[in-house]
Amino acid sequence: LAERSNLAGVRHILLVLSGKGGVGKSTISTELALALRSAGKRVGILDVDLCGPSIPRMLRVQDSAVHQCDSGWVPVFVGQDKAIALMSIGFLLERPDDAVVWRGPKKNALIKQFVTDVAWGDLDFLIVDTPPGTSDEHISTVEALRPYQLLGAILVTTPQ
């Protein structure tokens, strides 16, 4: 089963969520990945914020391209040491600032494809940056990841 093999080398999966936008989910995801990498861990980030994919810009790889291999998409590797693997819809758009205006089924299909068709290799942590709110994308992501060991979730909140 292809989906088994692409996440088989991932030891822990961590979702970063919030009930609203603009609270810093992508910043937390990026900083967490950088901290884990500094601690010697192998890290991947899956950016499922389809309408606002900001992580490629945060990690200064927004001009990178995703390539195909036998087991699916090869994520973009970040930094001189190539220690963070990143997959984002931002790499699949013609221009990084293009808007994605899709309905649920198409978004859900891409999320499932991101989960099953990205060749992550061996990772200690896969951090999943989600869009704001509690939408179809969250349900699709959790359902697609259900067969794998989910470490848990970080819920990002603000004082208000």
From TrEMBL:
One of its GO terms (cellular component) is cytosol. GO terms for biological process: iron-sulfur cluster assembly. Keywords: 4Fe-4S, ATP-binding, Iron, Iron-sulfur, Metal-binding, Nucleotide-binding. PROSITE patterns: MRP. One of its GO terms (molecular function) is ATP binding. The keyword 4Fe-4S applies. Pfam families: ParA (PF10609). The keyword Translocase does not apply. It comes from the Eukaryota. This is NUBP2 factor. It comes from Rhipidura dahli. The lineage of its organism: Eukaryota, Metazoa, Chordata, Craniata, Vertebrata.
